[in-house]
Amino acid sequence: MELEEQPKYGEPRKYDPTFKGPIQNRGCTDIVCCILFILAILGYIAVGILAWSQGDPRKVIYPTDSRGQFCGQAGTPLEKKPLLFYFNIMKCASPMVLLEFQCPTTQMCVEKCPEKFMTLVKAYSNKNDFDYYKQFCKEGVTNTMGIPQILKLGLCPAMLTPSRPFTRRCFPALGQEGGVITVGNNSKFDDGNGNIRDAKDLVDGVKNATLVIEARQVVMKIFEDYTQSWYWILIGLVIAMLTSLLFIVLLRFLAGIMVWVMIVMVILVIGYGIVHCYMEYAALKGEPGADVTLQQLGFQTDFTVYLQIRQTWLAFMIILAIVEVIIILLLIFLRKRICIAIALIKEASRAIGHVMSSLFYPLFTFLLLAMVIAYWAVTAVFLSTSNEPIYKVFNETECEHSRATCEPANYTSSLMRKQCPDSECLFAFYGGETVYHKYLIALQFYNVFLFFWCANFVTALGQMTLAGAFASYYWAFVKPDDMPAFPVFSSLGRSLRYHTGTLAFGSLILSIIQIIRVLLEYLDHKLQGAQNKCTKFLLCCLKCCFWCLEKFIKFINRNAYIMVAIYGKNFCTSARDAFFLLMRNMIRVAVLDKVTDFLLFLGKLLIVGLVGIFAFFFFSGRVKAFENTAPNLHYYWVPIITLVIGSYLIAHGFFSVYAMCVDTLFLCFCEDLERNDGSATRPYYMSSTLHEILWKNKAEEPSSSAARQQDDEDIRLKQQQAQEEDAA
Fold this sequence. Notes:
With 728 residues, the protein is mainly alpha-helical. The chain contains 24 helices and 12 strands. α12 packs antiparallel against α23. The two termini are 21 Å apart. It is a multi-pass membrane protein.
C-alpha cells in the first residue's frame, strides 16, 4: 500500500454546507497571553502613578539656580525672577562644564539681566549704583559690609557685564566692531580683581555655557514654534483628513478614474518638486557662500542654513528624480496588472459601500493611539524628571573634596569648607541613589516596551475588526440581506470578547522585535566612535535582518487576524492556515495583492505631497499673499515636517480600510475557490465581477509555467475532493 503524499502547504478547505461566514459560536483564544497583557497593563498604570508622584516636569521648563530652585515658577518667591544670572561667566570656559553640564560658579535667579558694565569696587562708592548692583547679589548684603567680606563670602559677583536674556539665561551682550570682539561697546573690561581683560575672554565661557544647553535651546525653540503654529498645523491636518476622506468616497463611485488621476497627479507633483529644486539650485548660482558643501558646513541647529547652499537643492533634485524614474518604470512594467488591480479596488469599493461605517473606524483607532502616545509621553517626562537635586563642591584652587557631594544647608560650617575655604556647594545635576533611582532605567525601558505593545495591540484590533466586517460581506450569499445589521460593531465585539489574548500575542511578538531594533539603534549610536569595522558590519547585518523580520511578522499577523476573525481559532493555528493558504495561491498574491498595495501607496503619496507643498509655501513665506498670515517662527520646517508626517498617518489610516478590505476579500476568495466549484449545489460566494477579475490574469498568461502549475494543482485538488465526497 503506497503512502499518500501529503500536500506541501496543507490540505485545502473542504465544502461545508453549514459555513456561512464568520463563526458566531466561538470560544476565547490565547487566554494565557490575555492574562499576561492585563497584568502588564496594571503594571504600566503602577509605573505611571509612581512616575507622576516622583517626577517634576518643571526641571525641564525652568532654569535652576545654585540652590536647585526654579527661576520664574508661579506661586514661589522667584515667580518674578525668570532669568538665570552667572556670577562669573568666564568659569564656564572650564572643560569640566562639558563633562558635568554645570558651570562652577554661583548662579541665581534675577528679574532682568545687567544692562551696564560695573565692578563691585566702583559700585560700592556710589549708593545708587550699589543698590542697583545688589539686585545681582545673594540675600544678606548690606551697605555696612566691606568689599573683602562680600567677596570672601561669595555674596556678590566681582563685576557685571551688559547681558541679554537667551533661553532664560543672561549671557554677555557680545558684539563686533572692525573684527574686534566687544562687550558694552568696549573691547576691554575690568574683571573686578584689578585685571584688565579682553572682551574675547568671555567668548569661551559663553560658548561652553551655550553648548551645555544647546539641546534644550533647540527643544525650546521648537516648542515655541509649536505654540505659534499649532492652530495652523491643526487646520492642515484637518485638510489632510478631508482630502483623504474625499479620495476614499470618490474611490467608492469612481474607482477607475480616481486611480488614474492619482497616478498622473503623483507624477506631476514629484515632477514639480524636481523643477522647483532646479530653480532654487540655479537661483543660488554666484551667491556668496552658496557653493559651500554639506560636509564643510557641518551640523547646524538652524536648518534653514542648509537651504542657502546649492548642494542641498541638488541632493533634493537627485532624490526626487530617482523616485520619479522608479515610479514610472513600475507603472510601465505593471500596466496590465494595474487594470486588474483597479477592478479589484472597484469590488472593494462595493464592499465598503455596504459597510460604510468602516470609513470612520480609523478615527477610533486614531483616538486610541493618541491616548497611548500621550500616556507614554507624559510618563516618560515624569520618569526623566524624577531625580533629586545633587549638590557638589566647586572650587578655584586645589581641593581634595573637589566635585564631592555636599549639602548646601550646612556647608558653611562643614569640614569640607574649612579645608577648602574658597569652595562652594552648588547645584550640579539631578540624580539619586535610592532603590527607585537605581531602577529608573528599567522603568523607562518598561515604558517604551509597553508603548510598543499597546500601540501594536490597537493597530491589531483595528485590523481584526475590519477583517471581520468585510468577511461578513463576502460570505453573505444575498448581499446585504444576509449581513449583520452592524458588521463593524459586531466584529469589534467578537474581537474584544473572544480574541483579546490573540491580539496581545501577535502584538507581543511584534513588540519584542521592535524593542530589539531600538536596542540595536542604541548600540549603533554608542559605538559610532569605534573603529572596529567588523563590529559595524555585524550591527548593520543585525539591523537589516530584524527590519526584514519585522516586515514579515507584520505580514503574517495581518493575515492571521483575518483568519481569526473568520474562524475564531488561536493565533498560531490561524497564522499557519493563512500562510499555507497564501502559499497555495502564491501567483495571485504576487500579481494582484501587491499591485493593489502599490496603487494605494501612490494615493497616500499624493495626499502627503499636496499637503507638504501647501505647507512649504505657507510657512516659508514664499507666497506674498501669506506673508502677513503665516506665523513668525524660529524654524519654519517644524510645522512642515509635522504636517507631512501627520498627513501621511491620516492618509494611511483611511487607505488602510481599502487595504484591509482588499486583503480580506482576497483571502476569502482563495477560501471560496477551495470550498466551492461554482455548481448549483456548491455555488461561489464571490460576485461574478470578482470571479472574472481574479481569473482574468490566468487567461492573459498561458505561457507562465508557474501559473499552469497552479491551475493543475487546483484541478487535482478539486478532483480529489470530489472523489472523497462520492466515496462518503
